[in-house]
Amino acid sequence: MRKRLKAATTAAVLIILVVLCYTAGEYLRQKIQESRETVGDIQRNENMVVIDAGHGGKDPGKIAVNESLEKEINLEIALKIKKNLEKENIEVVMTRTTDERLSDTQVGDLKERVKLINEQNPVLAVSIHQNSYQDESVKGPQVFYYTDSKEGEAAAGFIQKALMEMDEENTKQIKANRTYYLLKNTEVPVVIAECGFLSNYEEAEKLVSQEYQETVAAAITEGILAYMDSN
Ligand SMILES: [Zn+2]
Questions:
Q1: How far is the CA of 129 from the centre of ligand 1 (A)?
Q2: Collapsed DSSP state (helix, strand, coil) of residue 170
Q3: Centroid of ligand 1 to alpha carbon of 204 (angstroms)
Q4: Domain residue spans of the chain
Q5: Are strands 142-146 and 190-197 parallel, antiparallel or unpaired?
Q6: Beta strand 175-177 with 122-131: parallel, antiparallel or unpaired?
């Protein structure tokens, strides 16, 4: 009888301990989450988005199979997104609006972009690029985000969804990355939108047309707005 009582008491104490540990853990997790969000709310410009047109000037980016240059397509799409967002009364800061590189070196150029994004402190920064791959058949837009950024992941999800609705054949999913310089060194949510593959002839031809650039810009704008609404 005494043995049974002892076993029952031990079990009860253990259960209470487990429950206490779990509750304390949940409480701490919630507090950490709250403090992160507060910092974000205080610091970020909630109505501002930075649009980064990748490459420029001496740096053409990828050269397409139809010989068009990534830097030019990036800028065209970026400027169209700017126009769309401004129609929605969102403040847009561009890293470049002309065919220029922000520094003499490639590393310096990336550093300048990161510096500008961190200084502006927008609710989101979207970097526009075009992809390339050795297998010419690979195509479709894909959005990248920093592995440890929940906000970046959410933004990438909204933009990818809008891009999939634009191109129903596209099966690409958002992809986490922790090595890209721009993703790694920025202090605000940043996504890289690779709008298509310049190594795929059909997609490269589409990407140089104003009409398709408008379509891509509209999808990315829609994704950005959905992300901003969700905040
Ligand atoms: Zn690029």
A1: 4
A2: coil
A3: 14
A4: 1-43, 45-230
A5: antiparallel
A6: unpaired
Q: How far is the CA of 33 from the centre of ligand 1 (A)?
A: 34
Whether 83 shows a pLDDT value over 90: the answer reads yes
Instruction: State pTM to two decimals.
Output: 0.82
CA of 221 to the centre of ligand 1 (A): 19
Our measurement of the distance from residue 231's CA atom to the centroid of its chain's CA atoms, rounded to an integer in Å, reads 15
> How far is residue 71's CA from residue 65's CA, in Å, rounded to a whole number?
14
Q: Dihedral sign for Cα 95, 98, 99, 100, please.
A: negative
- Cα-to-centroid distance, 123 and ligand 1 (Å): 22
Q: With 60 as the cut, is the pLDDT of residue 34 above it? A: no
Distance 131 CA to ligand 1 centre (A): 7
Token duo for residue 74: 């990036």
Environment of ion ligand 1 (residues, CB < 5 A): 54, 61, 129
Cα–Cα distances in angstroms (integers) from residue 30 to residues 22, 35, 36, 215, in the given order: 12, 9, 10, 40
Q: Calculate how far, in angstroms, residue 81's C-alpha sits from the geometric centre of ligand 1.
A: 17
Q: In this structure, what are the phi and psi dihedrals at residue 100, rounded to the nearest 5 degrees?
A: -140, 155
pLDDT above 70 (res 146): yes
Fold annotation for 45-230:
Aminopeptidase (3.40.630)
